[in-house]
Amino acid sequence: MACIEARGLRKAFGTTVALDGINLRVEEGRILGLIGPNGAGKTTALNAILGLTPYQGELRVLGRDPWSERDQLMRDVCFISDVAVLPRWIRVSQALEYVAGVHPRFDRAKAESFLAKTTIKHASKVRELSKGMVTQLHLALVMAIDARLLVLDEPTLGLDILYRKHFYDSLLNDYFDRNRTIVVATHQVDEIQHVLTDVMFIEGGRIVFNRSMEELESRYLEVMVNPERLAAGRALKPIYERQVFGRSVLLFDSVDRQQLTALGEVRKPSIADLFVAVMGNQAGAAQRAAI
Amino acid sequence: MKTESNAGPKSYSGALGMARVIAVTRPMYWSLRREFWENRSIYVAPLAAAAVFLFGFLISMINLRHRMHGSEALDTTQHGHVLAVPYEFVAALIMGTAFIVGIFYSLDALYGERRDRSILFWKSLPVSDLTAVLSKLIVPVLILPLLSFVITVAAQLIMLLLSSAVLMGSGLNVARLWTDVPFIHMAEVLFNHLLTVHGLWYAPIYGWLLLVSAWAPRAPFIWAFLPPFVIYVVEKIAFNTSHFLHLLQYRLTGPEASALMAPGSTLMDQMAALGPAQFFSTPGLWLGLAIAAIFVASAIRLRRYGGPI
Q1: Which chain A residues touch B121 with a CB distance below 8 Å?
Q2: Is the pLDDT of residue B232 over 70?
Q3: Would you state the pLDDT for residue B65?
Q4: Which is nearest to B163 in space by CA: B260, B58, B70, B239?
Q5: In what order do the strands lie in the sheet with A240-244?
Q6: In terms of Cα–Cα distance, which of B289, B112, B143, B128 is closest to B212?
Q7: How confident is the model at residue B251 (pLDDT cuts 50, 70, 90)?
Q8: Which value does ipTM take for this structure?
Q9: Which of the residues A93, B10, B123, B179 has an alpha carbon 20 to 30 A from that of A23?
């Protein structure tokens, strides 16, 4: 069974279309990165999946309708929506007690052992913790819940690089077990590259790119072309071209590696490179359409 | 669920029922505990009121002997009334404090979590909006009245012991204090009053405040008090009547106010005048409860189906 399945998912706020007929299918055991610029519709899509906002179209999460069956769904779904949502007045010990009290799938010992690796004290209130510590606490709570789907919306916003790296490492090493599904929305693309199994670019309420990481690695290649081979390179129909230190870098989709090696230095593009290429083409297409 | 699969075939239905009960009561229990963690004023304010009163009472003890002497001349009933005054006063003080705490608590209960965005954390856990809002209603209509009762009785006991100690020291008749002030009766009347009036009669007030708290984009205090005021002003200008104001007054002063009071009767007499049978046959009670149910149901819907923030 697919963990998340959407067909023609639409959501408009007045005249602003936030989701413009999205179709998507996320199988269980995947880690999906939902990547897009601000205002692309990431948060709206996640809110619909979490039953926090009504929508048009068809959407099933773990076989349930998230809007009408939200209460049941929340036993199997967990989310961190932003860094600042833990109540500021709560003590660390109270947060542990409360989640242990209300969540039948919460393993307190697991949360404690995760917290033991941090400098967070049980007696501290959330308002006394630094931003990074609050995120660590929230992650400790969420990781100790045996949920089938974990949704993270910009979980590391405003954190420094050490915390961000630590966050994703913990997620991968201590939480993910191939049965769970994780959906991460972010625009800090590079740090989550090694974590993901699937990647999806969203722009203007539409999914403009949707590939598994295996596909991504086998299909896309980037070449820093020697100037004299530029015409030959362009003849192979690159999907994107950019300038680095005065030299052209061409991005190819499904072109034989040996052919490309003749052009210059070949490497695998990062998600960020692909994102820029896809978004650049989108913007180009929009401009051409406008003219 | 694990508990179900482990249970044998005989105990299966029993275990299932038990699991259901736990599934309902556990989130409610923890939601209530959560309210105590967040709003310590629920118990701190009535305790502080009791402490302040006891401090004043301690000082007044110096005068107690004179009062006892002065009241020797009075007959037993009057004597009891004079002595009972501070005991009634402490009850009224704690009750009033709890009422004010309840009002501010209800106004902030569903607004505060939206303001600090922690509502997204609460909604990420398997606690339904029904449980969340009901727990926030239970605090002013049940927890606060029960708490004020316990604190009041404790304060009265302390006062009684203090008075006895002072009287004994001066060789006066302690027994009169214990026999003439009707403590058990007062506690009984207070308990009934707190549960019926503060719990049921005031329910529409708390329901309204919770609704405003769930809806107000900002400044719930103004949104709570402005509409009644506007209705009053419009009615006054349009029809030159004050029915709405009288309705609010009736709601605030309680159903007892309508009972005819003998001159010179005390607060306790007034509270005792309305028996349970009479209280539960007041149409205003049921009308109020129906309105409270509508308000609370709307608050639940707003929390459930409103935007994420």
Answers
A1: 85-87, 138
A2: yes
A3: 61
A4: B58
A5: A240-244, A247-253, A220-225, A264-267
A6: B112
A7: confident
A8: 0.85
A9: B123
What average pLDDT does this structure show over B220-246? 92
Question: Does residue A193 register a pLDDT over 70?
Answer: yes
More confident residue, A108 or A243: A108
Round to whole Å and give the CA distance between A233 and A231: 5
Partners of B33 on chain A (C-beta within 8 Å) are 97-98, 101
Whether A201 and A37 have beta carbons less than 8 Å apart is answered as no
Cα B42–B45–B47 angle (5° rounding)? 105
* CB pair distance less than 8 Å for B38 and A52: no
Q: List Cα–Cα distances, A179 to A25, A72, A169, B20, B234, in angstroms.
A: 16, 20, 18, 28, 63
Phi, psi of A155 (to 5 degrees): -70, -20
CA distance B307 to B309: 5
Q: What is the mean pLDDT of residues B152-172?
A: 83
CA max distance for chain B: 76
Q: Is the pLDDT of residue B22 over 50?
A: yes
Of chain A, the percentage scoring pLDDT greater than 70 comes to 96
Contact: A74, B126; criterion CB under 8 Å: yes
Nearest to B38 among A47, A74, A89 (CB): A89
Size (chain A), residues: 291
The domain spans of chain A are 2-204, 216-290
Residues B57/B86, Cβ–Cβ less than 8 Å: yes
Confidence (pLDDT) at B2: 41
What are the angstrom distances between the C-alpha of A183 and each of A27, B20, B57? 11, 31, 63
Q: For the residues A5-14, what does the mean pLDDT come to?
A: 91
Per the structure block, which two tokens stand in for A289? Answer: 């359409």
CATH of A2-204, one of 3.40.50.300, 3.30.70.660, 1.10.10.10, 3.40.50.920: 3.40.50.300
Of A47, A84, A98, the CB nearest to B117: A84
Chain centroid to CA B168: 36
Secondary structure element (H or E) that encloses residue B37, with its range: helix B12-38
Q: How remote is the C-alpha of B21 from its chain's centroid? A: 27
Q: If phi over 0 gives left and psi between -120 and 50 gives alpha, with beta otherwise, what is residue B259?
A: beta
Interface test with B, best of A52, A62, A65, A83 (most B CBs within 10 A): A52
- Which of B124, B128, B305 is opposite residue A78, by nearest beta carbon? B124
Q: Is the Cβ–Cβ distance between A122 and A91 less than 8 Å?
A: yes
Give the whole-angstrom CA distance, residue B165 versus residue B179: 16
Which residue's entry shows tokens 């929390």?
B303
